Amino acid sequence: MGEFELIRNYFAAAPCAQTGEGVALGIGDDCALLTLPPGEQLAVSTDTLVAGVHFPEVCDPFLLGQRALAVSASDLAAMGAAPSAFTLALTLPSVDAGWLQEFARGLNVMAQTCSLRLVGGDTTRGPLSLTLTVFGHVPAGQALTRSAAQVGDLLCVGGDLGEGAGALALVLNQRTAPAAISETLLARYWSPQPQLALGQALRGKATAALDISDGLLADCGHIALASGVRLRIERERLPLSAALLGLLEKDAAQRAALSGGDDYVLAFTLPPEFLSGLLDAGWPIRVIGAVEAGQGVVLTDADGQDITPLTRGYQHFRETR
Amino acid sequence: MGEFELIRNYFAAAPCAQTGEGVALGIGDDCALLTLPPGEQLAVSTDTLVAGVHFPEVCDPFLLGQRALAVSASDLAAMGAAPSAFTLALTLPSVDAGWLQEFARGLNVMAQTCSLRLVGGDTTRGPLSLTLTVFGHVPAGQALTRSAAQVGDLLCVGGDLGEGAGALALVLNQRTAPAAISETLLARYWSPQPQLALGQALRGKATAALDISDGLLADCGHIALASGVRLRIERERLPLSAALLGLLEKDAAQRAALSGGDDYVLAFTLPPEFLSGLLDAGWPIRVIGAVEAGQGVVLTDADGQDITPLTRGYQHFRETR
Q1: A319 pLDDT exceeds 60?
Q2: Residue A13, SS3?
Q3: Which residues of B touch A48 (CB under 8 A)?
Q4: Which of B9, B30, B129, B225 to mutate: most A Cβ within 10 Å?
Q5: What interface predicted TM-score (ipTM) does this complex get?
Q6: What pTM does this model have?
Q7: Are residues A160 and A127 in the same domain?
Q8: What range defines the domain where residue B83 resides?
Q9: Which of A242, A246, A299, B275 has the highest CB neighbour number within 10 Å of its CB?
Q10: What totals of helices (H) and strands (E) does chain B contain, helices first?
């Protein structure tokens, strides 16, 4: 048995690789077999993370395992899908038992957090990279797409923005911060929490949704384009955490929130009548703007003046994603 | 728009990326949405191909696109699944429009051959590699697994063996052959034809099945282990093509058939009562042995003598798979 076959057996024995609801056949055959509840559709998303591009060449494998799965699971949250399973294609330059054990442990922790079962994949030799494909299910017709935002909807997000981008300088060891700040921000970077429950709670309410990965401005641009509307963002309403404001001046924190990416919180458009019910239920929803007639994204200051930056999107470690 | 975003849009516009039966939502949102016929299960398989490991660093991108999808689709054939969709995670060192166009053309041709629709994926910068995840569907309980071979079953294959391995020396330019031979073998290597229809025809008949990727001996070992039986292979029954026998001496051709891998024809165990009906229907099935009590794989000569080689499996370009 070759060392790569040993790795496959190792993952097959992982806690998150046990079969269960929705998984009729797991790792070990030519295909896995998944079942769907009657009347539901399968949601599928694939993401690749390459060493040196999407994460530092040298990083903690436990944190990498956690983060890789969280980033993928966030796409299920953005569709309002209930999580079910994932496959892992892992390319490694060599076999390092300690590295693998820690990576698998991180993967397991996030898999259990997200209720995702490992059902298959491939392990190959080559430059370090990961491709994860995640599966979820959603009642037919209830998935949250990007294309049905309506004029008059509120523009909302599911939590604080900018922490992922703020953490990046810490991740890359380009700067330091007091432990109270760095611990919070690094946790947000390495262990983002996919908003799977919020996504499902927004079914039948939100008219469009996605998870913020490229940066708020760029991602709102995706909704605007797909829905044929304009999204207005009010800068003073951007939710900024104490940790981020401890690291960055307010201006820089706002820029991180607008363009940084890596937040993996949901952004969505919501008819106003649904807001109070969701807030009463305790969902951490913040209104940051509104859907208007037009196209593109406009940023306004407290006086309603257009302050949309000329350059948008994301300019950082993940720029080639 | 960055160049990698342009690539994503390019694939989204490919002929094989159009939505249709089984695909409720294709490329462009956080997830694709697939539907399943009532009472069916989803079959899923993921394969990674790394440049310099699974295919030569320098190769024809059209052929690479064809082969990558064919290799993955073969796993659906091995489960008896009807093909539906696939995702492509493509990691590229740089953007070369000509390369991409040819790669996408090869992918399209095979996608249309296999009735597979491109529903999503990711495009990233990094060392060249591809991860494909394929989806099919199969009536619940009818998938062809590896674990139910029965003593008394026939051991069968779906076509000639050894051509993929025989072609490898030509692929790597380690030797040459007359055009009549090299054309046949190179076509087999670069454009294997997944036996999707045969796999579906074997539902309810074959007791175990897989596609031969690691080599006949190694792959039969997988069935023997999963089913708790012994598989006997009769060397003189190995189907060898005229092209392979034109390239290699009979001994070497038999070794290629036994250990070479890369054939992507189905190997399966079949209760004898089903054989004549399948042959009458025109399926290219060859009986190469039988299922016996015991364990492992045994190779016999024309006199029934055990000639099982001590070293099995695959020792070639794909050895780190």
Answers
A1: no
A2: coil
A3: 89, 91, 122, 124, 126, 131
A4: B30
A5: 0.90
A6: 0.91
A7: no
A8: 3-139
A9: A299
A10: 10, 12
